[in-house]
Amino acid sequence: xxxxxxxxxxxxxxxxxxxxxxxxxxxxxxxxxxxxxxxxxxxxxxxxxxxxxxxxxxxxxxxxxxxxxxxxxxxxxxxxxxxxxxxxxxxxxxxxxxxxxxxxxxxxxxxxxxxxxxxxxxxxxxxxxxxxxxxxxxxxxxxxxxxxxxxxxxxxxxxxxxxxxxxxxxxxxxxxxxxxxxxxxxxxxxxxxxxxxxxxxxxxxxxxxxxxxxxxxxxxxxxxxxxxxxxxxxxxxx
Length: 238
Description:
Blueprint: H1 4-8, H2 11-21, H3 24-40, H4 45-54, H5 58-69, H6 74-84, H7 87-99, H8 104-113, H9 116-125, H10 132-159, H11 171-184, H12 189-204, H13 212-235
């Protein structure tokens, strides 16, 4: 494993940082709004800072925030965060072939830095596991830029919560960034159908309490994807 200094000097590190910089405006807007929302939602500044730096998952932070504020049971808060972040289990499974050679501390570091856009950009650049060092260098440059693009605005939003109105709707920029990259991954019928089913299920179940429509959408999309993948393997010639 190369040192961090060697990784930073690798051309793929700069390429990863550059790829992420192209969508960092949406990430920054989302981070800013999340920071503002945490404080305006009732969290103290120290607790909001701790949540931003340790959880580092905007969707989970926003999903659990109202539950924390109203004093929901801890198990409900944890279950909500777990369901919202289930996608990272899939991310980790697909990233494992690229990073399984790393020491445990580095794999934990990779897991912490992995985000939605980081995963999407990395898989687009390296669809098949290959050279280890270039892939690691690209990931660190990409994920490091994503981390800064999120944390700096998020922390700014925490300290400037009462000066930034939530009515600005800046979080929509982050949603647009995710949608754009998500659409680029819909390369076959299975991914298109799974995404469509998940979106439809989320809308249909929106009235469920405790944000359970997210769980329904995840379950529906994953089940449809697995069924279509199994059907494709069965139909393919041996």
